Amino acid sequence: MRLREIVFGAACAASVRAAARLGLPDALGETPATAEELAERLDVAPEPLRRLLRALACYGVFAEAADGRFTHTGMSRLLREDTPGSLHHIALWCTEPWTWDAWPRLDEAVRSGRDVFADLYGKSFFEYLHTDAADSARVFDRAMTSSSRQAARDLAAYVDLTGVRSVVDIGGGQGLALAGLLEKAPGLHGTLLDLPDVVAHADPRLREGGALADRVRLVPGDCRTAIPVRADLYVLKNILEWDDASTRATLRNVVAAAEPGARVLVIENLVDDSPSMRFTTAMDLLLLLNVGGAKHTRASMTALMEEAGLPVEAVRPINPHLHAFESRVP
Fold this sequence. Notes:
By secondary structure, the chain is an alpha/beta fold. It contains 17 helices and nine strands. The protein has helices at 2-7, 9-22, 24-27, 35-42, 46-57, 74-77, 88-93, 97-102, 106-112, 117-121, 125-132, 134-158, 176-184, 196-199, 244-257, 277-290, 298-307; strands spanning 63-64, 70-71, 166-170, 189-194, 216-220, 233-237, 263-268, 312-319, 322-328. The strands form two sheets. It has a seven-stranded mixed beta sheet, sandwiched between helices.
């Protein structure tokens, strides 16, 4: 029966996507409601909506009472857009139309060891997003922002900034993690290093006129080519997921740029020794499918860092799905 449930897993993912797209979690408030009441609020057919709710309730997304009314659960609340830590945009991103084309070709990716995207769409993943799938690109941006915002809070709570005067967020996207660290330590100065079109759209707090702008430098560049920044703390969060050659180049550039004693914090999802294995291994396979990338094991990340001259002093959880590899430049 468990295997039957697994092979019908697409139905569960599709049900979550449907609920998010319909606005179902937002339509249900604190008062239990029938499928008919919810259908009227959403302007949908009541009986199919009941069937959708019943399917979701089997997985703990909503709950059905004995009188047939539905209530929220912890998981269904996470699909509301107004919930702190909402997974609304993540749920949409992980079930975008291209994913349904890519997953059935996982066996091809396993055989070849490379992504299947060019074969599917005639172009690379990000080129496809930005030229052919504007709606999906917007979902991607919202999902990454949502995920980064929660990770930034957890990172700020985790990092000990004692004695740290300067920090650089390498490949930090909008700079949400950097902003969180700067807000935590008023005397801290920071640098955001990412590609030119990325830093141009940095978090408003970091741009000119922003609340943190007087303590921030926005540096356009590619960390695989060079890291022209010296700092007390180097943060690399979820960017070492390309091919190993690119990861090696980035880590070598950190060592070349940093002064001896500088701290290096590599933050990654692990596909071993983690309480979120089902989640992280799924992300690992999705990376294989769309860009040919990979998540790390504790051993593989440690080996790459030590090969680059960064001895790993500790590996600690930041939250259930992120781990920090702590090192200092010799």
